[in-house]
TrEMBL record:
This is ATPase. It holds the Pfam family FGGY_C. The lineage of its organism: Bacteria, Bacillati, Bacillota, Bacilli, Bacillales. It comes from the Bacteria. InterPro entries: ATPase_NBD, FGGY_C, FGGY_Carb_Kinase, FGGY_N. One of its GO terms (molecular function) is kinase activity. It comes from Metabacillus lacus.
């Protein structure tokens, strides 16, 4: 074994590592890093949501199975490469898709299948709560799901003993602690910026409103305890160690940091937790997070107010749909290549197809698409109908087809961002982008810079994503200096020598995207008609 491998082996042996596991919308990923934040090993498990009884959900068994599978693949890679079995880890953190609804009874039984952020079934509750609080409550938020269940008089409401997010659930399962990181908590219920906790006045107001409807829940009692980054969130229990590591080699007692949402880990992974910084996360959904230096002047339904993992206020523009439709088209293209006797791996196919977008007309040749697999709150669609539309005069070729599908992935995001930049005049020093799209150099970065009409940077860790960011938060728990803020820790330790590639928006691309957006906004009537008239046969 060479010296470098021996050094890493010793780091693993001494437990000088941190593990981050993120449950994303299509993949559960585990990333093990050393104290220099370099990835030692990773593992993953592919999964998909499904529509069940009118709700987007995941199979509960897959949550546990996928968690163990991602860890197991990471562990096996370590054993193969470094000839050592992991028995201890310096610190662990879990993150997952934010928002959604997981409600449990006093025995810890899940009362209804996990309702994910993707559901657009809470419009009545979201609107009523927004008016009540004078604070935007999006349809995705946990409190909107709960209140909609109250309005629907669902029978499980009276049995709720605890409500949390997916990350909070995993953390509770493995530590026994009912806690949550403040960033994830801010997608459950509004946070008071001063107290760094749930807004007390809104809690009391909500209890009165549901009490008048005959519901006796006390919100403070059923929500998880809010923690800031760097605070202790418990230790891995013996039962938790057996769930995580099916080989039974991992020992209990490992410290855990607060569980966080994928928005928070994205901010950490791109060093975007300081005021006037922002990041864009590109995946099944797409969202921009801008750390605010001043309050937003009014309530906007397109803007969520959440926080960084350390509690700073953030303006979040979240579009439910981004890559799902593009992935579906890529699967079709893969079928075509296989039908003619060719076979390309995913990375090669995606790279070839995405690069075609650089050969396209600036506006996509007059083509139009909506990748709405699910409802889209920013454009007022309660359900999704993926569409591709063109006129006889459109310049229909592969390059324009690909550019159009990339442009539309950022269409709803652009509408929300225009509020922050044009109406609120927020100053943004830098925006960093991350997600699997950026595995292919230039294309995604170039087109999102055009969509936002602002410089966009990508780091070398762009495709590592939230699991790596969660591992960094876990490292912060055990490696920070006394009183060292998360911002200081990231600047001085994690990103001091980061390789950052910046790209200015190309004026030709900017004009092309503006022309595309005119079609996009005008064509929403087509999408509206599809939602209203194209009947969907529900599965499940």
């Amino acid at each position: 074994m060479d010296r470098k491998l021996e050094d890493v082996r010793n780091v693993i042996s001494r437990g000088e590592t941190s593990l981050g596991i993120e449950l994303g919308s299509t993949r559960i990923k585990a990333v093990l890093i050393d104290s220099d934040f370099k990835t030692i090993s990773s593992g993953s498990f592919e999964w998909e949501n499904q529509m069940q009884d009118g709700f987007w959900t995941y199979n509960s068994a897959d949550i546990i199975r996928g968690l163990g599978a991602a860890y197991s693949e990471m562990r096996q890679k370590v054993e193969q490469q470094y000839e050592i079995t992991i028995s201890s880890i310096g610190s662990i953190g879990f993150s997952a898709m934010m928002h959604g609804y997981m409600a449990f009874d006093h025995a810890g039984e899940l009362l209804v299948p996990f309702r994910t952020w993707r559901n657009a079934t809470t419009s009545a509750a979201a609107k009523e709560l927004t008016d009540l609080f004078q604070f935007n409550i999006p349809e995705r938020w946990s409190i909107a799901h709960l209140y909609q269940a109250v309005l629907n008089e669902e029978t499980h409401i009276s049995r709720i003993d605890y409500m949390t997010t997916l990350a909070g659930y995993i953390h509770w399962l493995l530590t026994g602690k009912k806690v949550i990181g403040i960033g994830d908590a801010s997608g459950m219920f509004p946070i008071n910026e001063v107290t760094k906790n749930y807004d007390e006045n809104m809690l009391q107001t909500f209890d009165k409103v549901i009490g008048a409807k005959g519901c006796t829940l006390n919100m403070k009692n059923i929500l998880p305890t809010v923690l800031l980054s760097g605070e202790s969130a418990g230790e891995l229990t013996e039962a938790g160690a057996k769930i995580l590591d099916i080989s039974m080699n991992l020992q209990p007692g490992i410290p855990l940091c607060p569980p966080e949402g994928d928005a928070g880990t994205g901010m950490v992974a791109t060093n975007s937790v300081r005021k006037r910084t922002g990041n864009v996360s590109v995946g099944t959904s797409v969202f921009a997070m801008i750390v605010l230096e001043k309050d937003i002047s009014q309530v906007y339904p397109e803007i969520d107010l959440v926080t960084t993992p350390s509690g700073s206020p953030v303006g979040m523009v979240h579009a439910n749909n981004c890559s799902s439709d593009l992935n579906a088209w890529m699967a079709l293209f893969r079928e075509v290549t296989e039908a003619v006797g060719q076979k390309a791996d995913n990375d090669t196919l995606y790279s070839l197809m995405l690069l075609k977008a650089l050969e396209a007309d600036p506006d996509g040749g007059g083509l139009l698409s909506y990748g709405y697999f699910s409802g889209e709150n920013i454009t007022g669609m309660e359900e999704g109908r993926p569409l591709f539309v063109r006129s006889p005069e459109s310049h229909f070729n592969l390059a324009n087809f690909m550019r159009t599908h990339l442009f539309t992935a950022f269409g709803a995001l652009r509408i929300g961002m225009e509020i922050l930049t044009s109406k609120e005049h927020l100053a943004i020093d830098t925006i960093l982008a991350h997600g699997g799209l950026f595995k292919t150099p230039v294309v995604g970065q170039k087109l999102i810079a055009a969509a936002l009409d602002t410089p966009v940077s990508v780091m070398e860790t762009a495709d590592e994503g939230g699991a790596w960011g969660m591992a960094v938060l876990a490292s912060y728990l055990i490696n920070r200096q006394e009183q060292e803020s998360l911002e200081e820790f990231l600047d001085s330790n994690v990103f001091a020598e980061a390789d950052i590639q910046a790209m200015e928006p190309d004026p030709v691309d900017v004009r092309g995207f503006q022309a595309f957006m005119e079609r996009y906004k005008a064509g929403l009537l087509i999408e509206r008609a599809a939602v209203d008239h194209l009947i969907v046969n529900r599965r499940g």
